[in-house]
Write a sequence for this structure.
């Protein structure tokens, strides 16, 4: 179902075009949301989308609902007696939820390559590569193997990404290197830039279970250990626990065993949620996504994975 989920949600996307709360009539499904496909969707695609959306709603403890479809208009109509928050629902129903794991390049090896770029080359009409990269704080106090290459204000991430993906820059970098930004801001309100390896990856389609991570007493460090239940984290961190299927467990053991000391980025829809450092080979097929998530964000993550 996970692989099919990615295919279905990649073929077309929904937008919420109408929601209403009619006069409340106890026992009836008064709340309505219409999901409009932004492309042409077949009956089969709509059928599969209903299955996916139903699973996600149940993960959010919304059980009293019905979903019908209008094949001619390519619409799904959701009705429920439960109170709905359109913003929260959009974070669950309108995303792909595609999870992947990537080994990252270390900060020093990426920054070394960036310094070798033709820095005076103009990107667009008015800015050189040097001027654009100056917008990226270099994370100089972090260890050389730190997965965060640098950090930036949100307003500058687009121009930095455009520069890093330009032909002048890409020609100087490894073909399997791809830049991605962090999902959340750091304590200074900036977003971290990661360089992930497309050659060393595991698909999240191999995850068989996702659940809320139970809290543990505070500890001093964060790492990935041989037994995921022994992973240490600060008291401000929370998140979800993931379990691979048999194929995924074998790949996870191989990937962690060959990349000791490196970080593995846990990426959902091309945004890095966390990137713990591998301290030991992980043979039990489990891992965690941790961070300073709200309870609602955790519920959303569990629902979409």
């Amino acid at each position: 179902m996970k692989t099919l989920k990615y295919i279905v949600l990649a073929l077309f996307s929904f937008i919420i075009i109408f929601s209403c709360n009619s006069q409340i009539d106890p026992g009836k499904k008064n709340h309505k949301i219409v999901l409009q496909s932004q492309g042409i969707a077949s009956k089969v695609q709509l059928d599969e989308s209903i299955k996916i959306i139903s699973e996600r709603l149940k993960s959010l403890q919304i059980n009293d609902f019905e979903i019908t479809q209008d094949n001619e208009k390519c619409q799904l109509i959701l009705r429920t007696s439960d109170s709905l928050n359109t913003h929260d629902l959009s974070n669950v129903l309108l995303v792909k939820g595609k999870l992947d794991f990537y080994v990252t390049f270390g900060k020093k090896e990426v920054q070394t390559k960036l310094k070798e770029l033709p820095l005076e080359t103009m990107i667009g009409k008015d800015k050189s590569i040097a001027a654009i990269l100056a917008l990226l704080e270099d994370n100089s106090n972090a260890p050389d193997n730190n997965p965060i290459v640098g950090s930036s204000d949100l307003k500058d991430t687009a121009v930095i990404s455009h520069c890093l993906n330009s032909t002048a820059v890409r020609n100087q970098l490894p073909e399997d290197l791809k830049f991605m930004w962090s999902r959340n801001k750091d304590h200074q309100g900036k977003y971290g830039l990661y360089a992930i390896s497309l050659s060393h990856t595991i698909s999240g389609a191999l995850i068989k279970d996702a659940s809320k991570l139970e809290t543990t007493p505070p500890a001093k460090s964060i790492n990935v250990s041989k037994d995921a239940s022994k992973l240490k984290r600060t008291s401000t961190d929370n998140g979800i626990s993931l379990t691979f299927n048999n194929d995924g467990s074998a790949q996870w053991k191989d990937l962690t065993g060959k990349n000791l000391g490196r970080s593995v980025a846990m990426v959902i829809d091309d945004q890095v949620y966390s990137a713990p450092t591998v301290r030991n080979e992980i043979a039990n097929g489990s891992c965690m996504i941790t961070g300073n998530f709200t309870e609602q964000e955790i519920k959303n993550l569990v629902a979409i994975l």
Summary: The longest helix spans residues 43-59. Confidence is low (pLDDT under 50) at residues 3-12, 217-236. The CA atoms of residues 43 and 71 lie 6 Å apart. The domain at 2-93 is CATH 3.30.70 (Alpha-Beta Plaits).
